[in-house]
Amino acid sequence: MSRKKKGLALVSGGLDSTLAVKAMVDQGLEMEAVHFATPFCSCDKCAVNAIGEEYGIPVHHVFMGQDFLDLLVDPPHGYGSHVNICIDCRILMLRKAHELGERIGADFYVTGEVVGQRPFSQRMKAMRLIEREAGLEGKILRPLSAQLLPETDIEKEGVVDRESLYSISGRRRLPQMELAKELGVYDYPCPSGGCLLTDPQFSKKFRDYLEHEGRPVLEDMVFLRIGRHFRVGEARVIVGRNEGENNRLQALAEGRGIPHMSVSGYMGPVTVLLGGLNDEVVSRSAAITVRYSDAPRDVFVDVEYFDGSVTVLRALAVSNEELEDLRI
To answer: What is the pTM (predicted TM-score) of this model?
Structure first.
């Protein structure tokens, strides 16, 4: 007897990849799923696991860390509208999916991609490029747009019924929502996952990091996701925006022995100072910290500076004009 064909689906937890899995399960195909994360994902891991529970398939989780960061410095296929490297990211994901597929005996790969949905990575030409560079030509089935694309190997073999697949294209989400009702897919968390590299403000922070701090290091990426950022000399100064961020910044600073400060006697932020410290940087960072506290703007107040020991500084809030000059 010949072995039953197995598919490996790339899932984000969003609607499109959920529909792609549902389409395959409804054809009676043996499936497993894999979820890829980077330091910049805002995906819902619980939603991903829910797909496995709903359809009775194993779910693998793969973190793309330093290998992904190295790509960000000089991506072979360039950046999108901000610092997103969607084409190179997709190639890396599919290469890793292929490695996993070799281990679990996958014969083909399934994605929730829709032709024309994303202008950078989901154009016909880009899709063919990604398949070729990932070493998976003819092996990637995209059920939502399958009837608009060339037949994959698994369709040619008759294992997958091509006529039962779909011809969705474009950026509108209504066709997927209507298909979800038709297939009985409910309670999906969001149309698709998110990536901070497409966010304009985060992109500014990351470009500033590359310019001043060089090759990205995994342990630094957590700081880029938190707080207001300022460039003071060669130091990055990060100011917490709320209680949750303050607690996180303080825990990171204390755990890693990083200098930090807060205003004494008033509610206010925790401020972390990264790299290039001198007396001028510390003084201006204290002024920024006062500016975001409840302390009066026109009087000097005490700021506690933690740097292995505690030093009390006297600081006056920075002016709005200087603050904007320093903001990343």
So the answer is: 0.88
106 and 254 assigned to the same domain: no
Residue that finishes a domain, picked among 196, 217, 238: 196
Same domain? For 238 and 170 the reply is no
| One domain for residues 72 and 167 | yes
Neighbours of 235 (CB within 10 A): 22
Alpha helices in 105-240 (DSSP H): 124-134, 153-156, 174-183, 200-213, 221-224
Residue written as tokens 């060669």? 234
Separation of alpha carbons 307 and 309, rounded Å: 5
Taking only the tens place, the pLDDT of each residue in 28-45 is: 999 999 999 999 987 777
b/e map 248-258, b = 16+ CB within 10 Å: bbbebbeeeeb
Strand partners, 261: 271, 305
Structure tokens at 255: 């755990």
pLDDT band at 189 (very low <50, low <70, confident <90, very high): low
Q: How far is CA 184 from CA 16, 18, 23, 161, 195, in A?
A: 14, 11, 11, 20, 28
- Say what the alpha-carbon torsion angle 110, 115, 121, 124 is, to the nearest 10 degrees: 100
How many structural domains does the chain have?
2
